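ABC transporter substrate-binding protein: C-alpha cells wanted.
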Amino acid sequence: MTSLLKRSLAALGLGTAILATPTIAAAQSGGSITVTYKDDIATLDPAIGYDWQNFSMIKAIFDGLMDYEPGTAKLRPGLAESYEISADGKVFTFKLRDGVKFHNGRAMTADDVKYSFERTTNPKTQSPGAGFLGSIEGFDKMQSGEATELSGVKVLDPKTVQVTLSRPDATFLSVMALNFSFIVPKEEVEKSGADFGRNPVGTGAFKLSQWTLGQKLVLQKNPDYYREGAPKLDEINFEIGQEPVVSLLRVQNGEVDVPGDGIPPAKFREVMGNAAEASHVVQGVQLHTGYITMNTTKAPFDDLKVRQAVNMAINKDRIVQIINGRATPANQPLPPTMPGYVKGFAGYKYDVEGAKKLLAEAGHPDGFETELFVANVDPQPRIAQAIQQDLAAVGIKASLQSLAQANVIAAGGSADGAPMIWSGGMAWIADFPDPSNFYGPILGCSGAAEGGWNWAKYCNKALDEKAAAADAMVDPAKAEERASAWGEVYKGVMADAPWVPVFNEKRYTMRSDKMGGDDALYIDPVNTPMNYKYVEAK
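Answer:
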C-alpha cells in the first residue's frame, strides 16, 4: 500500500508508484494541520488496521524493523540499527537501536519484536496481514494452532533478534516495513485487550492524544522519537463526519489543510477549471487496481462460467467516464507499471451476449439475484450503480448494500464473506512495489481466512506454490525471470476469474496554502499515502 489514506489508501489520492523524491518544504518545524474524513477510523491496531483511512495514522504511531527513505522506494533500517542475511537468504539477524522507547516510557527490546510477530500470526488476532509473515519458520503451526510461538524467531540478546525463514523470500525486508510487522508492547496490548486499537501505544513519531468516536482524533508529537529531525509537526487533528463536498469547501476557505477523502468527483472539473484552485491540486500515479470480488465458495459464484460471465458483463470504459477519466481500464490484477504485468494480455472483453450465453450454460438462463457491497463515499455508490446496470443487462439482479467502509471490510472479511464487493475506496494499492503484494493478501489462500482481505475467498493451492517459487528467486540477476513467473501466476488467476479487474486509478487531492508547495504533502511511494513524520506547515 502513500497519502493520508491507504488500501486503499485510495481516497486521498496519492499512490504508491510516485517514484520521484520530493524535497521537504522550507518551513519551520512545529505547528499543526487539520485533515477531514467522512467516516470514523476503524482501528489503530497495526496487526488489524488495513484500509486507506487508518494506514498513515498507524505508521505515525508505530515503527517496524525496516523503513523507507522519505519519498522513495528505497528500504533502510528502522527500529533495527543494522541487519545481516545468511548466504542462503533464509536467516536474518537484526541489531536493534539503542534508546528506542514506547510511548509509555519503556525501552523496546528484542522480546517485543518476537511478541509482535507472534501476535500477528496468531489466528486469534485475526490479522488480515498474517500471510505476509508466512515465510517465517513455524508460521503454519501458528496458524493451525499447533504452536503458540514462531520457531523461526529467536531472541539472541535484548538488542538482537534472529528470524529464520522456511524458504527464501525476496520480499521479506519489505514486509518488515509493513504495519503487520510493527512493534507493540505486550503489557499495553494485554491491558487494553480488544480495545488496543482504540488505545494504541507504539514507538512512533506521534502518540494518540485524543479520540472522540465519530468526531475527532488528535495525534501529538513524540518528543522522544528516535529519528533526528522528525516529526516536523507538533499536532495533527483529524475531524470526522465531514462530507467530502463540505471538506473541499473548507479547504478552499482555509479552514482545513487536507481533505482526507480527496476531491469529490462531482467537483473535479470545477476545481481543475479554476487556475487558482488547480494550483493547490496534488496529483500522483499509483500501483492501484480497483476490482469486483465474487465469493467463489458460495453459489452461484462457485461456478467458473458465472464468474466469467460477470467479467464479460462489465463496461469498464463507461465506469472510467464516471470518474472523469481519472483511470485506465484494467484486464488483470497487476497495474501496468508493476513488474509481472502481462503486456498484450486480452483478458475478458465486454460482451453482453457472450455473458448471457455463459449464464445459460451455467443453468441461469434468466439470471439470478445477489448483493453488491459498496463503500458509501462518492463516487463509489455511483460506480456500483453502473455495475448494477451492467449486471441487470445480462439478467443478474444485484441489490446494493451501501455501507461505511469499515462495515464493507468487515463483511468481506467475515467467515461467510459477501457475495460481491466493489472495492472502490478500499481497492488495492501496493504495500511495496513487488508483484507478490497483489497476490498473497488478496488472492492467496492465506488471505481467504476470516479477517483477511481475500474477499473472493479464492484459494488455488497450485498457484500458491508457483507464487512461493517466484518469491524464492532472491537473486537480483533473476529479476526478469521472476517477473515472468509472476505474470504466469496472474494469468492463472484470470483463468479462474475470482475478480473483475475494473480500472487502474490516478489520484488527486488538495492542500491548503498553509501546507506550502507540493512537497509539503510529503508523499511516500510505498505503503502509505502521506508520511506524517515529514509533513510540514508554515
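The longest helix spans residues 479-496. The two ends are 29 Å apart (CA to CA).

Cheers.
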